[in-house]
Amino acid sequence: AQSVAQPEDQVNVAEGNPLTVKCTYSVSGNPYLFWYVQYPNRGLQFLLKYITGDNLVKGSYGFEAEFNKSQTSFHLKKPSALVSDSALYFCAVSPRSGNTGKLIFGQGTTLQVKP
Amino acid sequence: DAGVTQSPTHLIKTRGQQVTLRCSPKSGHDTVSWYQQALGQGPQFIFQYYEEEERQRGNFPDRFSGHQFPNYSSELNVNALLLGDSALYLCASSFGRGPNTEAFFGQGTRLTVV
Q1: Chain B touched by A110 (CB under 8 Å)
Q2: CA of B79 to nearest chain A CA: how many angstroms apart?
Q3: Which one of A43, A101, A108 has the shortest CB-CB distance to B48?
Q4: What is the pLDDT of residues B92-102, one digit of tens each?
Q5: Distance from A104 to chain B by nearest Cα, in Å?
Q6: What pLDDT sits at residue B1?
Q7: Which CATH number fits domain B5-113: 3.20.19.10, 2.60.40.10, 3.20.20.240, 2.10.109.10?
């Protein structure tokens, strides 16, 4: 079965420190990889995606993500966290074969950045 | 430019009833997908509409049906509501289809079944 795992329900970091939100996936065939963020009472907002090429993808608001094919991981990173980064983060994968746009989401990781 | 808009924002229904949720895609987008997000879970894909036809479907029963209109807006219908249908229903739109297409999400409709 195709699945996405975000092993941490919550990640706590201090403002100014680097952050990492982990994601691993079990989807065959080199899927496309996405990160979305969800703020309270708002829909999901696109952060970044990996299609091909460089394993380090840069996205919105200073976020980046590192793709590791051998570990089937796509961890979200930011060099210096802001309090305003506090939100719910979702990793998602999109299978390449026979898929017209379905996203498979992880369960989400709450990021709490403290001043 | 308005993004993806959904209505209503909140809804309370009784078990066994039917509900219709509505979505207007972002301007210029022609593809609409629906997701169900249960409390504490990630969104789950229900189905996708393109050119007024259902193009892809997730693992949801036939009680869940939809429609897309010529102006690309869409409806999600759920019949014979169950308590377990209580969730946030998200609409996502995109320009065209494809596995690497960026989807834009609405704020969602919070459905509570009592």
Answers
A1: no
A2: 23
A3: A101
A4: 999 988 888 88
A5: 7
A6: 62
A7: 2.60.40.10
